[in-house]
Design a protein that fits this description.
Helices cover 38% and strands 22% of the residues. The chain is built from 3 helices and 4 strands. The protein is globular.
């Protein structure tokens, strides 16, 4: 049984990494925002996300602590969305994105 658990854990990690680098399957993705400056710069986050290929709309108001991103299914890359949030205000700005989808 321990071998099965180990295999299952490795499989989950590999699937997670594959999903992270892939495209968003649906037209909407939820991104959990974390860090001490996220709430202070909503315009910077919105602008950064709108620059990502495939993104059509960004909603930071309907769900506190999240960015709801709507766009073309299959056109938005998860890694690009995360990179946009993490780099919205430059190095060391302490706002990170965790993709919830």
């Amino acid at each position: 049984m321990p071998r099965f658990r180990h295999l299952a854990l490795v499989l989950m990690i590999l699937l997670s990494a594959a999903c992270e680098s892939g495209s968003v399957a649906g037209p909407e993705v939820a991104i959990k925002l974390g860090g001490k400056f996220c709430a202070m710069y909503p315009d910077a986050i919105t602008t950064a996300l709108q620059r990502v290929d495939g993104v059509e709309a960004v909603d930071l108001e309907s769900r506190k602590g999240y960015a709801i991103v709507t766009g073309k299914a299959g056109a938005m890359k998860l890694a690009d969305l995360r990179k946009a949030v993490n780099g919205a205000r430059g190095e060391g700005w302490h706002c990170e994105a965790e993709l919830v989808e």
